[in-house]
C-alpha cells in the first residue's frame, strides 16, 4: 500500500448552495446494486478485488458493513465492527475464506472512531496488522478509551442545561450511567499510521483518495477510488439519515454545515455511475442524488422547526418537531445534541436568534426582546460526536 500526496484542485462549483441542495426530481433514483446482504460469516464480492462483509452489532440498525480489499501482500480491511465475541466470530469466519486466496489482513483502515467501525482494530493490531486512520479519529478514540468513568462530567451536565434539560429529567440524566467506550473498543497500539485529507492509498490496482470531513464524526474518512467506488462509512447512507450531533465540549459547532461541505467535496470525486459502499444497509449507485435527498430531509426538518419556533423554545423542546412523535426521557437524553445542531445551523443562517435565560438558551424565529441576544457567527465546521451511536432511521 503506497501513499502519495494529491495536489488539491482550485475549481469550485459554480452553482449556489441553494441550487446544489435542491431535492432530486422524480426521474432520479438511488438504486441498490445488490439487495441481498451477505449472510453472517460470509463475504460477497461487489467489485473486482472488493468484498462486502456484514457484521452484527447491538446499536443502530443492528449491523455494520466492512469491506475487504485485495492488496498485493494481503487484505486491507476497511472498518471492523465492535469488539464483541459475536462480531469477531462473524468477521473471522468471513475472512477465513478470503485469506486462502488473498492472504491475511495486513492493514486496517478506519473511517471514524465510533465503536461499530473501530472496535476490533486493536485486535487486528495484535495479530500484526497496521492501523491506518485520520489524526482526529485516533485522538478521539484514545481519549475515550482512557475515560473509564460512568458518571456524567460537569461539562456534560452543563451542556444538557444549556439545551434546556431541567428538573426530574435532568436528575435522571445525571443518574443514568454512560456507556463505556472501552467496553466495545479494543485498546489501540501506540504505533499507527495517519492519513490526511487529499492523500491517496494504492491498494492493489486501485488508487483511493482520502476525503476527510466532519459533521458525523471528527475527521471522518471517505475513500474514493479512481474507478468509481466510494467507501463512505456513515457520511452517506441509504434509507437512513446520518446522526449530526453537537458535542458537550464544543456546544457552538454546526455539524450540518460541516456534513454538507464534506458531501460537496466527495461530489468532486464521483459521477453518476459511482458505487457507494456505505457503513450500513446496501451498496448503491446515485451518490450525489442520495446526498441531495438527505439534504432535502434536513430542510424539511428546518421548515418544521421554524414553525415550531414562532415562540421561544429551548433546543430539547424542539425534539418533537424534529421527530414528529413523543420521545421517552431516555430518547430525549440521547437525541438532544442533534437538536442543538439544528439550532446552531439555523442561527448561522440567520433564521433564528437565541436569548439566554439563566444557564439555558431559548431560540425563536422572530426578533427577540431586548437582552443578551445570541446569533451564532459562522465558525469552523468541525464536529466531535457526543455519543457513540451512528444513525437515526430516516422516518422524520
Question: Count of DSSP E strands?
Answer: 21
* Oligomer status: single chain
Mean of pLDDT: 87
Which range best describes the helical content: under 10%, 10-25%, 25-40%, 40-55%, 55-70% or over 70%?
25-40%
Principal-axes shape call: globular
Biggest sheet character? 8 strands, mixed
Strand content: 15-25%
Structure classification: alpha+beta
Q: List unreliable stretches of 5+ residues.
A: 2-27, 377-396
N- to C-terminal separation? 42 Å
- Radius of gyration, in Å, reads 21 Å
Overview of this protein structure:
- The protein is of the alpha+beta class.
- Helix content is 31%, strand content 23%.
- It contains 11 helices and 21 strands.
- An 8-stranded mixed β-sheet has the order 1-10-11-12-13-15-16-2. Strands 3-4-5-6-7-8-9 form a 7-stranded mixed β-sheet. A 4-stranded antiparallel β-sheet has the order 17-19-18-20, with helices on one face.
- A hairpin with a 3-residue loop joins strand 12 and strand 13.
- It is globular.
In short:
The protein is an alpha+beta fold and 396 residues long. It is built from eleven helices and 21 strands.
Chart the SSEs and their pairings:
Layout: E1 2-5, H1 17-20, E2 31-32, E3 44-47, E4 50-56, E5 63-71, E6 74-78, H2 85-102, E7 105-109, H3 115-118, H4 121-126, E8 130-133, H5 135-146, H6 154-162, H7 167-175, E9 193-194, E10 199-203, E11 206-213, E12 220-225, E13 229-233, E14 240-242, H8 255-267, E15 275-278, E16 284-285, H9 287-308, E17 313-314, H10 319-323, H11 329-348, E18 353-357, E19 360-364, E20 373-374, E21 391-393
Parallel strand pairs: 6-7, 7-8, 8-9, 13-15
Antiparallel strand pairs: 1-10, 2-16, 3-4, 4-5, 5-6, 10-11, 11-12, 12-13, 14-21, 15-16, 17-19, 18-19, 18-20
Amino acid at each position: 500500500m503506497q501513499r502519495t500526496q494529491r495536489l488539491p484542485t482550485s475549481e469550485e462549483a459554480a452553482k449556489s448552495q441553494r441550487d446544489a441542495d435542491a431535492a432530486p426530481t422524480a426521474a432520479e433514483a438511488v438504486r441498490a446494486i445488490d439487495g441481498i446482504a451477505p449472510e453472517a460469516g460470509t463475504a460477497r464480492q461487489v467489485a473486482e478485488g472488493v468484498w462486502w462483509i456484514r457484521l452484527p452489532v447491538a446499536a443502530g440498525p443492528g449491523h455494520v458493513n466492512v469491506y475487504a480489499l485485495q492488496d498485493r501482500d494481503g487484505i486491507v480491511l476497511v472498518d471492523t465492527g465492535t469488539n464483541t465475541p459475536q462480531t469477531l466470530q462473524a468477521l473471522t469466519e468471513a475472512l477465513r475464506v478470503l485469506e486462502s486466496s488473498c492472504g491475511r489482513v495486513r492493514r486496517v483502515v478506519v473511517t471514524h472512531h465510533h465503536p461499530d467501525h473501530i472496535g476490533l482494530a486493536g485486535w487486528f493490531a495484535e495479530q500484526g496488522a497496521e492501523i491506518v486512520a485520520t489524526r482526529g479519529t485516533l485522538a478521539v478514540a484514545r481519549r475515550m478509551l482512557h475515560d473509564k468513568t460512568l458518571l456524567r462530567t460537569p461539562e456534560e451536565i452543563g451542556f444538557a442545561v444549556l439545551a434546556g434539560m431541567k428538573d426530574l429529567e435532568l436528575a435522571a440524566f445525571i443518574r443514568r450511567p454512560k456507556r463505556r467506550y472501552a467496553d466495545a473498543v479494543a485498546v489501540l497500539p501506540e504505533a499507527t499510521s495517519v492519513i490526511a485529507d487529499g492523500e491517496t492509498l494504492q491498494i492493489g490496482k486501485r488508487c483511493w483518495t482520502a476525503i476527510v470531513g466532519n459533521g458525523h464524526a471528527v475527521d471522518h474518512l471517505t475513500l474514493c477510488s479512481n474507478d468509481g467506488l466510494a467507501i463512505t462509512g456513515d457520511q452517506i447512507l441509504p434509507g437512513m439519515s446520518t446522526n449530526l450531533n453537537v458535542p458537550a465540549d464544543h456546544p457552538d459547532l454546526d455539524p450540518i454545515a460541516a456534513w454538507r461541505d464534506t458531501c460537496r467535496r466527495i461530489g468532486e470525486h464521483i459521477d453518476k455511475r459511482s458505487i457507494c459502499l456505505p457503513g450500513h444497509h446496501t451498496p448503491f449507485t446515485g451518490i450525489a442524488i442520495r446526498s441531495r435527498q438527505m439534504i432535502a430531509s434536513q430542510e424539511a426538518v428546518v421548515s418544521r422547526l421554524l414553525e415550531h419556533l414562532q415562540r421561544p423554545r429551548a433546543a430539547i423542546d424542539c425534539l418533537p418537531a424534529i421527530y414528529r412523535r413523543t420521545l421517552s426521557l431516555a430518547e430525549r437524553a440521547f437525541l438532544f445534541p442533534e437538536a442543538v445542531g439544528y439550532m446552531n445551523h439555523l442561527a448561522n443562517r440567520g433564521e433564528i436568534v437565541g436569548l439566554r435565560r439563566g444557564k439555558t438558551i431559548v431560540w425563536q424565529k422572530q426578533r427577540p426582546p431586548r437582552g443578551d441576544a445570541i446569533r451564532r457567527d459562522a465558525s469552523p465546521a468541525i464536529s466531535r460526536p457526543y455519543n457513540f451511536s451512528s444513525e437515526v432511521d430516516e422516518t422524520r
